[in-house]
């Protein structure tokens, strides 16, 4: 088992100017991680022509600190992205595959779509054929670069375990798998343990995340919280401090034979470094016990 941390977890410290993305890599090594996960808007919010240099700089810093780059996570939308030009969006995603390969990342996660809204709305299932075609093209290209591709239960529309399972089955490509985010299922008001049990056989990589969950009928917690698809209140927090059954989810993954990389993705209000430190200690403890 390898433990990684998404550099997005440090985002509050980066935005405040307390740390740079490269400082976060060094801190990850100090905290005892095996790897870091790169993220498009954290590491590549620069002109396109500067991305390769940023990728090499990140790889150099990781190498110097004894860390691997476990994955690259990017946003994508094969229906609405690139101004609705699906072919152009596919090519844009392929450019990030090249960056992942340059960094030595063995895998890359991309989103699928936020779906159509209003009068254009279509069900997820009705869109699977066209979405699977786009995902398969990216997976085939990435295979030539030695990078496995994945999608995550993420973004509300492509979030339920049954939806990502159906997409995985439709894509039907050996270079494509699922990133299982054990916390994100609550954004679709789904029981995380049951959802993880469903997708565990297809899981290639894991995000460990926790949320404080409050019912729609609770008092509005205000700033820092957001609503699930069904209107319940959610707030990111330290692993082990929320309502996500993290240990039970890890148990289901271990029972399925998963022994890959688990990356912490923290998005709470607590100070980032302390939250990540505590989260890693809890995550290691839960994995050893489950």
Explained architecture:
47% of the residues are buried. This protein has eleven helices and eleven strands. The protein has helices at residues 11-15, 21-31, 40-43, 51-64, 81-84, 86-103, 124-144, 161-171, 192-199, 246-255, 272-289, and strands at residues 2-6, 35-39, 68-74, 107-110, 148-152, 176-181, 203-208, 210-214, 226-227, 233-237, 261-264. The protein is globular, with a radius of gyration of 18 Å. With 290 residues, it is of the alpha/beta class.
Proportion of beta-strand residues: 15-25%
Task: Provide a count of the helices.
Answer: 11
- Span of the ends, CA to CA: 13 Å
Category from helices, strands and their pairing: alpha/beta
Order of neighbouring strands in the sheet with most strands: 1-2-3-4-5-6-7-11
What Rg do the Cα atoms give?
A: 18 Å
What's the count of strands?
A: 11
**Low-pLDDT segments, ≥5 res:** none
The helix/strand series, from N terminus to C terminus, equals: EHHEHHEHHEHEHEHEEEEHEH
